[in-house]
Design brief:
Radius of gyration of chain B: 17 Å
Helix content of chain A: 40-55%
Structural class of chain A: mainly alpha
Strand order of the largest sheet of chain B: 3-2-1-4-5-6-7
Strand content of chain A: under 5%
Number of domains of chain A: 1
InterPro entries (chain A): ACP (IPR003231), ACP-like_sf (IPR036736), PP-bd_ACP (IPR009081)
Number of domains of chain B: 1
Oligomer: heterodimer
CATH topology of chain B: Rossmann fold
Number of strands of chain B: 7
Function (chain A): Carrier of the growing fatty acid chain in fatty acid biosynthesis.
Distance between the termini of chain A: 16 Å
Shape of chain A: globular
CATH class of chain B: Alpha Beta
Shape of chain B: globular
Protein name (chain A): Acyl carrier protein
Largest sheet of chain A: none
Order of helices and strands of chain B: EHEHEHEHHEHEHHE
Order of helices and strands of chain A: HHHH
Number of strands of chain A: 0
Largest interface: A-B, 3 and 7 residues
CATH architecture of chain A: Orthogonal Bundle
Family (chain A): Belongs to the acyl carrier protein (ACP) family.
Number of helices of chain A: 4
CATH class of chain A: Mainly Alpha
Pfam family, one (chain A): PP-binding
CATH superfamily of chain B: NAD(P)-binding Rossmann-like Domain
Number of helices of chain B: 8
Chain lengths: ~80, ~250
């Protein structure tokens, strides 16, 4: 069963996932861009998987292309899930 | 070097006979739980499973037509039958519909591409999910010496096999840093049902080793590429061809 989608919950998931891709925890903010964090397309694909497993929201290639910042990703998941 | 997770499962498509059945047995001998996929030869697949079990290995026969497009359903079926994720995928299923290009029909083209190439892509894409999560995976595409080199009468088969090699290299580059390797094995002239009618003295004379290869010799290459020892080998094509490509 998918978890309830709140901004807080999604942010927690994203913040916890990013260090798996080598991101320094102290660099993670809503405003940080994935480019600055050195998070590439493979990392974003894996982040999408983690989100889909947790919330049942699938982010497709087009969606992922639009995401620039950590906040964009969180907002998109919340928007798609509501 | 990372080690294969304990519940890892190997899926071999088209494994009821020939090269596929030898690969299934070789992977089982190496400790993989093996899904023996077949489309029509249930008795053949069951015989492979029995042979594996007789040697103390674990295997299940899995009925699915890989050309139907539902790779996710097949992977789920395998996972449920064998109790773990597919962390080794051997794309072996293939057919030949030979004719010179002038005489080759659209159907002959589509069937060969739709059996030998497209299902390999879909299964690879959909199994990468578990492999990336596990930080361990082995994709092995059974290509051919035909593709990298010409073989008159097989433009469809050559396109599919060359396509597999190109796909192998690119996906290997995409996922290498997640501990997932993607390689191809290119058999030459191997003694199977598919080649039985072609085994003339003239053809055998053109092979530097002067003999046909065996399915077991191809399987040994796959076994290596699927092993922990091959963790740094990715994006390559291993020729098992008695020197045909030398």
């Amino acid at each position: 069963m998918a978890n309830a989608i709140t901004e807080e919950a999604v942010q927690k998931t994203v913040y916890e996932a990013l260090p798996q891709f080598g991101v320094d925890e102290s660099d993670i903010t809503r405003e940080a861009t994935f480019e600055d964090l050195d998070v590439d397309s493979l990392d974003l694909a894996e982040l999408s998987q983690i989100i889909e497993d947790e919330y049942g929201v699938a982010l497709k290639g087009d969606d992922v292309g639009k995401i620039k910042t950590v906040g964009d990703a969180i907002d998109l998941v919340v928007q798609k899930g509501s | 070097m990372s080690a294969r997770p304990e519940n890892a499962v190997a899926l071999v498509t088209g494994a009821s006979k020939g090269i596929g059945s030898a690969i299934a047995k070789a992977l089982a001998a190496d400790g993989w739980a093996v899904a023996v996929n077949y489309r029509s030869d249930e008795a053949g697949a069951n015989a492979v499973v029995e042979a594996i079990e007789a040697e103390g290995g674990t295997a299940k026969s899995i009925h699915a037509d890989v050309t139907n497009g539902d790779a996710k359903a097949l992977l789920k079926q395998v996972e449920e039958a064998l109790g773990g994720p597919v962390l080794a995928l051997v794309n072996n299923a293939g057919v030949a519909r030979d004719n010179i290009a002038l005489q080759l029909t659209d159907e002959d083209w589509d069937v060969v591409i739709g059996t030998n190439l497209s299902p390999a892509f879909r299964l690879t894409r959909d199994s990468l999910r578990s492999m990336i999560k596990a930080r361990y995976g082995r994709v092995i595409n059974i290509a051919s010496v035909v593709g990298p080199r010409a073989n008159a009468g097989q433009s469809n088969y050559a396109a599919a096999k060359a396509g597999l090699i190109g796909m192998t290299k690119t996906i290997a580059a995409e996922v290498a840093r997640r501990g997932v390797t993607v390689n191809a094995v290119a058999p030459g002239f191997i003694a199977t049902d598919m080649t039985a009618e072609l085994a003339t003295d003239e053809i055998v004379k053109a092979i530097p080793a002067r003999r046909q290869g065996t399915p077991e010799e191809v399987a040994a290459a796959v076994r290596f590429l699927a092993s922990d020892d091959a963790g740094y080998v990715t994006g390559t094509t291993l020729y098992v061809d008695g020197g045909m490509s030398a």
